[in-house]
Amino acid sequence: MPEATGGSTKSGVRGRPLAQAYRRFGEGDGLKISPLHARMAIALSESPDALRVIESAPARRRHPTAILAALHHLALSGQAPDLAEAIAAANATTATAAANAAAAANATTDAAGLDVVGAVAVEVVRRAGDLVLEVGAGRKVRGDEGGRHAVLYPAVAEVARRVGAPSVGLIAVGRSAGLNLAVDRVGISYSNGQSLGDADSAVQVSASVVGEGRVPQHAMPEVAARVVVDVDPIDVTEVDEARWLRACVPPDQVQRLTRLDAELALAEAAPPVLVRGGVVDVVPDAIASVPDDVLPVVITTWALSGLDLDGRLRFLQRLDEAATRRPVAWVSVEGVGVAPGMPTYGDRRASGHSIIGLGVFEHASMQATAVGRCWLRGEMLSWLADS
User: Fold this and answer.
1) Continuous H helices in the chain
2) pTM to 2 decimals?
């Protein structure tokens, strides 16, 4: 374990003292997402020994989400069995309460169980600080990698129909694990009674439909290639990398973890080609990896906001350059005004929703169409185009 460097925790997260940062996380953002993570963060904030361990990490690795993901990883890998046991007990208590019809509306994780998990988390950091920091070293905390299927399925099918392509090669930009590339093998149900995809798939997602527009029912074309473009792509067939994805989900989000496991199983059955590098630099290589008789469909879901305007324009230029011998399609799900050249219905920037757009590059031209809006990372959508 790293040696104590004194009682100071001045070099904390985002300029705040470390203890205060962890407590604020536990009482604020953490509590909104995961009561268990919130309690763990507060427990760590109250332990000078644990804080000294965390303080010895590089500044960017001290954030509560990074340390909590590392702790979850140790529990999942069997390296912190006491923490795994405490988490399982807390989750079991929650499940029991939720199963009781009288308590279902107000079911929360048992407070005593939370306290136990918090105390065990502190003990793991105190006794195995080096291991905690080693697990998180060099790893990014991954957000929700999957779950975009309800928006992507109709968008991919529609753009393929417009081009007349019987098969597509899906290229996910900036989604490091490529879980959305299994969009052709999932089942989707919409609040208006429509459904798409495979009703028997282990991955089932749902979305609310706003307005009168109907989601197009076109069949998904054959997916002949799956490619991930990312600076740091994840090989889902590698056990430890897949475990890290699970570790980034709070352990009391059982339904989300169950869905992630099912998505990983689909991805492992047909692992994508990984193209490592900056998006603008390597997207031509990704497109070139798609067989010549297959339509490349480049997918950006909230990925272009990581580029400045010049980078976004160069990204479009790369798609245009790749379309000299065959069409290249682009499915864009980005914030209003983020995707250059994509219509926005006149909506204001930062308006709280995203635009679903389709682009086709062919013969040095781009045809771009907005087909709808979506909210909540695709869990709610409004399809506005005639299909």
Assistant:
1) 18-27, 29-33, 35-45, 48-55, 64-77, 81-99, 111-127, 129-136, 149-163, 239-247, 254-269, 279-288, 309-322
2) 0.88
Contact 216, 157 (CB under 8 A): yes
By CB neighbour count within 10 A (0-12 exposed, 13-18 middle, 19+ buried), where does 325 fall?
Answer: exposed
DSSP 297-320: EEEEES-GGGS-HHHHHHHHHHHH
Average pLDDT of span 49-75: 95
130, 121, 147, 148: which is closest to 252 by C-alpha? 121
What does the mean pLDDT of the chain come to? 90
- Amino acid sitting at position 209: V
Please give the single-letter amino acid code of residue 380: M
The distance of Cα 124 from the centroid of its chain, to the nearest Å, equals: 27
Q: Note whether 157 and 219 are within 8 A (CB).
A: yes
Mean pLDDT for 61-89 is 96
Q: What is the pLDDT of residues 272-311, one digit of tens each?
A: 999 999 999 999 999 999 999 999 999 999 999 999 999 9
Q: Which two tokens stand for residue 236?
A: 């889902």
Strand pairing of 187-190 and 195-197?
Answer: antiparallel
Query: Token match 């473009």: residue?
Result: 229
